Amino acid sequence: MLFSTTLALLLLLLANLLSTTSSTKDDISHATANNQIYLDVHPVTNTTSFLETLRKLPLSTYRLTNDKDRTRIGVIGQDLARIIPDAVSILPDRSLPVGKKPTLRNFPSVNEPTVFWHSVGATQELAKLMDRLQIETDDQMQRIATIFSEINHFEQLLSLTTGENSTLRMREAAAKATIIKNEMEMELLRAKHEKERAEITRAAEEEQLRKNEEMTLARIRREDEAARLQAERAMLSKFEASQRIEKAKIEAAEAVAAIENEKRILFHKASEEMKVKTARAVAIAKAEADRANEDIHLRRLRAESEQRRKRNIAAINAVFTHLSTSLSDAVNKPKEVLTFVGYICLLVSSIFVARETSKLIRSIIESFIGRPQLVRETTRKSLPWSLLAYVKQLLVHPWRSKCAAAKSIDETFSDLILPLELKTRVLELAHSARNANKHQAPYRHVLLHGPPGTGKTLVAKKLAQVIGIDYALMSGGDVSPLGADAVTQIHSLFAWAKHSQRGVLLFIDEAECFLGSRDTGLMTATAHNALNALLYNTGGDRRDFMLVLATNR
Q1: How far is it, in rounded angstroms, from Cα 69 to Cα 62?
Q2: Half-sphere CA count of 553, side-chain side, radius 13 A
Q3: pLDDT tens for residues 378-406?
């Protein structure tokens, strides 16, 4: 009953469509005669998949966001896309009526003609099934009618013939057996038809699933390829933009430097010319004044020379008189003279020793208690805290060596994100420095190069941690403002590092600010002296500190 009702509804829908399109039939025929519209036309012979597809469509009741008061019935776009992918199109933007939300993103739009033609295919398949069932039913009805006619004939013979009861009963039994046999054959035929139908349905389902999977995979591949191409284009555009910006910055910096250099040269030239002109004018004025006052100047010179001569003669006489008196007293009292000379020598020696001793004590106290002016950050503790830490280490872990407290190298650098080759080099450097500290071998100084924010400071801190020595940070930009005091501060810095019990990893950030080539002639005298002080303290093998320089140029 349900099957017949469904077939009737589909036939009614097909009739409505044919009635609505009958008005344009002549126009289509005329257009087809003038120009071929449809290409590669092939009739669809297998309509089983259409019927199975429609059987899978789940009907649902729903309400739309722009019309919440109305309840609708139909198939949700996502469910329809899963079963019939060609019947759904994903719209990036879908406009709604005025007063609602302006647009919907990725809206699934149902292609109703595609769903309709699937329904037509399913209707044709139902019609074929009905035709086959009707033919089989007619055959069975004919066979049943034949059997009933034979039974009636046998009943008539039975009513007419009374002597042959046993024979008639045998014939009646044979007829009944024939009927039962026919019924069994009908059941077998029906079971066979059901099996064939199940196989056809299963094959159609597998074919539909395979097509859906292929279409899904193809769509995913297209989307991945489009996303990859878009990402590559975005990265390329960003790289080109950064290159252009960097090039513009370099050109602007070069132009500014050229302009500043030209201004400096012009200013120096103008100042030199002004000095020459001023000196020439002063010399001319002085020469003219000298020529005008020559007589007065000569008399004044003679008077001054005479006064100087008299003063010198008087001073010489006074000196010689004092010397003669002193020599006569010394000849008369030699012990007092020796005692006085001894006191004078002892006083000078005491002053010299006190001054040098105070300088030495001051440097020692500063190296243990204070922190050099150039050091911005350090893990080395001051004198009272360092003594407490040393006593604690002796009381709690007296057997632990200087390097035993250092963590595992791999564990320490596990959170450091670097390219594999560069990280391998950093780990090798850590192993080498740790072994050098363990065996009292000289350290190898290191130069780290990279843009800002790439982890140079973090690598230096972790190196000091795994080696088991103190860490100290200074900036190269702090040297130039010190001026002439930079040399003293650099010597104080390295003296402070040499007095560390554990050793120090000295990290100099922005080292290019005061380090450079001495052959270019662009360095000032202060920078040249600071560089010489650094080279003096870092020359040769060092076992008391390790130098790590960082630059981004």
Answers
A1: 11
A2: 8
A3: 888 765 555 555 555 555 544 444 444 44
